[in-house]
Amino acid sequence: MIRALKKETLDRPPFWLMRQAGRYLPEYRETRANAGSFLDLCYNPKLAEEVTLQPLRRYNMDAAILFADILLIPDALGQPLAYKEGEGPVLDAVRSAKELASLSLDNLHSVLNPVYETVDRLSSSLPESCTLIGFAGAPWTVATYMVEGRGSKDYVNIKKWIYSDPDGFQQLIDLLIISTTEYLLKQIEAGAEVVQIFDTWAGVLPDEEFAKWVTDPTAKIITAIRARHPDFPIIGFPKGAGGNLSQFVKETGVTAVSLDTAAPLEWAKTEIQPHVTVQGNLDPILLVTGGQKMVDRIHHILETLGSGSHIFNLGHGIIPQTPPENVGLLADTLHNWKQ
Ligand code: CP3
Known about the structure:
The chain is α/β, with parallel strands linked by helices. The chain is built from 15 helices and nine strands. Helix 14 runs parallel beside helix 15.
């Protein structure tokens, strides 16, 4: 993984899967039931370490991703948050600069300390060959949940805010830039070897707003991290960025980008891969389908991106309906591959 991030071309790309720990695994569901709530699981270093390791016991991935969630930052800033069965995350929405007064950085590290402890535990329990990935949500994506109060289809409230009061909304983004930078630095100091910044809802912004709310905040976080840890490997994932991915890569300083499922491979090979390592991009639904169709598509991705630096992954996270044996077939297909 580290060699791929140094832009080496390898015989077989390293692989891991977004959301590799989670509800498609029966052992996860059991640990989750014993933990109490989802947040109790995230803030319990021993159990969070356990669920991080569960997929690795089955499938020999080349990297482990810390078990946590992108919404722990709003929680640590003091915004009430709950994960409701069948509904996903629900927060008390903040929708104006005035309402930001209810948020504060004061308890950031005391709330997030168990996450740093999970990273610390993992950095001793993982074998040398398995890279530990820390992560955070990007300011824009975290803000969508903070402003909408839940997952959204149309992003009406956050878009109304950016169009009617961009300076006020910038205050929320600035608070997220500071807290996310500090959160990632603590993960790095606890032993994370790479960090990934998830901007899952980057693709809902029109072109004219993309640089201001996606590229700029990510660039600021990366500059601040590199001021302390020069050359530290950072993977960006501005999902749905389309043609804006080129600008994102040039202006943020990411080491690698994760390609979403829709990213055309030939375009990624000529426009993106010469600049940074690319990660991706099997459709997570093909992992539900499995079989020869999945194997053929994996081979196609490996053939197209194999002449440059590549980390194999999905184009988005594993979904709960995924049969665990299909993940096994994917792992075998990758382990048997040689360029
Ligand atoms: O990748 C991993 O295995 C590490 C853990 C991880 C989780 N969430 C655990 C989780 C990571 C990296 C995330 C990131 C995350 N969280 C994102 C960005 C990546 C993406 O997939 O788009 C986003 C948007 C969230 C916010 C979030 N957390 C939502 C919308 C939900 C509910 C819906 C859903 O997809 O499950 C969560 C809950 C969540 N986060 C679960 C897990 C394992 C399921 C909780 C449960 O056990 O019920």
